[in-house]
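Technical appendix A lists one of the benchmark inputs used to test multi-chain prediction within the project. The record comprises two sequence entries:
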Amino acid sequence: MHIILIIIIFSGLLLTNEVKAEPVKLKVLCTQYDHKESMTNKLKSKENIKTKRIEIMKNLKFATFLLLVAMVGNESMAQNLTGQKIIENVYYRSTGSDGTSELSMHLIDSRDNERIRKIKQFSKDFGKEEKSIMFFLSPADVKNTSFMNWSYDDASRDDDQWIYLPALKKVKRISSDSKDDYFMGSDFTYDDLGDRHPDEDTHKLLREETIDGQQCYVVESTPKDEDYMYSKTITWVIKDIWIGLKKEFYDEDGDLLKILTVKKYEKIKDYWIISNTVMKNIQDDHTTKMILSNIQVDIGIDNNKFTERTMTRGL
Amino acid sequence: MKRILNWLLNYSWLSMILIVLISVFTFYWMKTNTTMETDLDEYMPKNHPAFIYSDEAEDIFNIKDGIIIAIENKEGVYNSNTLKKVKDLTKELQKLPEIEKDDVTSLYTADNIVGTEEGLDVKAFYKKTPKSNEKIYLLAENVRSNEMVDLRLVSDDETVTLVVANIHDDVFSQEFYQRILDISHSYEDDEHTLYVAGTPIVEGTLAYLAPKDMQKMVPIVIVVILIVLFLLLRSVKGTLLTFFVVIISTLWTFGLMAWLNIPIYSVSTMIPVMLIAIGVADGIHLFNHLQLHISQNPGVSKKDAIKNMINHMASPVIMTSITTAVGFVSLLTSQVYPIKYFGLFTAFGVMGAMLFSLVFIPAGLMIFGLPKASKSIKESKESNDNFAYRIAAFLLRHKIVSVYITVFIILISIVGMQKIWINSSFLDKFEKDSEIVLTDAFINEKFGGTSNINLILEAKQKDQFKDPETLRLVDLLQKNIEDSLDVVGDSFSLADYLRRMNKVMHADREDYNTIPNSKDLNAQYLLLYEMSGDPDNLWKVVNYDYSKLNVNIQLKSDDSKSIRSAIKIIEQYEDRFNELGVDVNYAGSGYKALVFTDLILEGQISSLILSLLIVMVLLSIMFRKIIVGLAATVPLILTAFISFGLMGALNIPLSTTTALLSSIAIGIGIDYAVHFVEQYRLNVSKGFNPLKTAQYTMYHSGRAISFNAIVVIAGFMVLLFSVFPPNRELGALISLNMFTSFLGTLTILLVILNYSKVFFKKKK
């Protein structure tokens, strides 16, 4: 197991060298971690179309310490993976340093009415911050509406968000104060899209199980904050690939609320990218499908892409 | 038939025991199997287009009735203590299994869409209860500047704030209501008073109170009837036998209902009332005849007297029962199932009462012996200054007066009927100073209104409700209806969202508090809202593809006049909406109640006319004279006219309860007419002249009819002391109907019979 971790970290290091023109030289591990972490975040955000507010490590030193412990601990634990470890592996799985894709978001209500939104999105990791920008392709009445999100490593700093409404011809800042918010009227909260840091929950490995022919770890995660919108989640994590193939969300009363299913994941360059997911809200009978196409990773997106000017210019 | 009845006299014990045994059995059946149905929705005809539409719209927009809890703090609600109570109460309600989390609205859950210098901000007014004065001041300012929330959740004088929990009406029960009350009261202290109101409370309490009050009143009615019956018949045997007939027929009716697994609806609680009023008539007429016969033939044997009674009275008793039953069966034309059942089972009970009157009473008399002839009868026998004789003579001398008076009364009644109105209000059924009415008035005074109607606009095209022209018309309609009707306190639609967004996106400038000019901008605002707010709120006012819109209109009263006045204004816009390709429809509990009331009345009026016609035909056949059929319905028509005319004149609205009363007017009125005509015919056939015929008929039949009227009127006057206003109205109106039927039969019917010289022709 620790070999994989080392490989991941190593690949992170390589990536760091690749992407970063002028790597910040802190303590090696620190840098390593920093990049690893933010990159994973960004890439993961790509696979999950995450755009807003990435919850970043609260404390870099603490993270470093954790990583050290993890590496050392791994040695002795060998085959005995903890729930915490598994979820971290998922969280830190690398998906590239920048990327673009077309997202088609299907919102289906209980009467099977379907609304489809097509979005072109770009994202890039800037080290201390993660920037993403998205343009609506359809429906026609919101075409060229664009949305930009900057999220920061510094957990005390809120994400910055802008929206450009072409009919108003103005870029406006928006803000919203909750991670429980649903992303664009979908069944995904920002947290569900991969924003939730492993340390916010306590994780317990329940069992190992084979679903869809994949060997999975079944991990139960219980939030440390009692007021959180879920009382617990259960994730089926594919061994060695570290993709959460399926996830169940339980509401405050402990009833099953939503089920997330990964329908498709593919290997693009060296990364496992999730490209088709379905989130079904059992209680409201509402479904969101997110389908990614034209996925490109590590293409070296220009830093100037992520500005208000780009937003107004459209695609 | 008479032969069978006479033959049965030989087996009195057997028939008596059999009837009692079956009754005991049905009683146990009833006790174990009876269910009550208190959900008012179960009354609605599910397949009626208006209901189908409304249910569908309710489903699409998640339209539910709200339980409104008002928290009052006379010092103002903007303080840490009150805000904490709002938060805690909201959370406690959200945790109740009957309430969905998203369905609780309060300052704690409301979205605050605010404009900042740079853009838009959607967030909660507070998460943690604000402690510092600055924070509380900021919160207050946020509320004050947000017209989507201010005055909707906080009153103008800032002393009251609302927590609204929307529930499905099938969720409501008395236990649930009690729990809500208990929870609310637990938040009260020296500073805070809590009030609970809203449509589910009103409807639920009504559905619970009406049968409960009836349960309390019926025994008193029975006791009074027993006493009056005894005073009139002067016979314990007669009183008890008559009384048992009524009780047994009621038992069998409810037993049958339980056996068929049909629940007791609140209208069904009126069945015993009907059966008491109608059932005693048979007994009274039988005993009346028996007593007259005994007094006229002293020393007659028990069996002969009973046989004479059967021979003379079986026909009128059977005839009256059939005509009455037919009157109730005509309620099957109603679209409302509980009313169909009501008609059907009352008819069954009436037939039961007939059977028991003809079998149980003679059997009882065989076993327990004849009653004593009353002294008053003996003394007045053949006396020329007999009161009845004098009245009959007087009536025949001044026939034209009766006709004039009748015509005059009908004309007056028609005038009164012009003013009659229908009320679907549930709240109006409560005492004016009851807590439920006062609470409702309090919240209506402080806020937009406790009652809702939902205007559903439906476009043929997708995305029509992003179109500025359509939205502006909606906005205009809302403004117009709010400004021109005092009863409309507030309205809410997608237009409010867009106006708010537009204003906020233009740095809170009031001149942008309008619907944006471009469809794209509307679409983009809505997208923005979905991205920053709670899109579930949006789906309460518009459907997924923006082809259906829900405009919520809040009313301060749930009476039909108010709802109709709002609909009238909406109708003025209908053409303009149609031009845009938009259909106008309605939904929600207020509207359903309105349609429902109309349905009941429509059904009521059609079944009234139908039963009149049937009765007319039946009587024409029974007496083989069309004129008799026509004449017999005159007192009935008179009764109905006076009843409706008086309601109009006294401003008593027609409601589901009062409308049903026309059935009793016919059911009982026809009995009087049949007995009277039958007696008249008998007297004619005995060869008396018109005056003597009239006098004997008045003496014999008139006595029984007035006994019957006195018993029932006395019995139902008791309901005037009910704590439940609809039951009081019921008592007053039944008494009135009985009185006019009684009076009409003895006067105008006699006059018409005399005029028409009916039955005399053969002789001449």
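The longest helix of chain B spans residues 199-233. The interface with chain A takes residues 60, 95, 101, 116, 118-124, 463, 466, 505, 516, 518-525, 527-528, 530-535, 538-539, 543-545 of chain B (CB under 8 Å). Comparable benchmark entries are summarised in Table A2.
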